[in-house]
Amino acid sequence: MATNVSRPLPLPDIDSRPFWQGAKDGKLLIQRCPSCRSFRWPPRDFCNVCYTPGGDWTQVSGQGVLLSWTVQHHLLHPGFADEVPYVVLAVALDEDRRCQLLGNLRRATAEELQAGMAMEAVFEEASPEITLVHWRPRRD
Question: How many of the other CB atoms lie within 10 Å of CB of 127?
Answer without folding.
Answer: 11
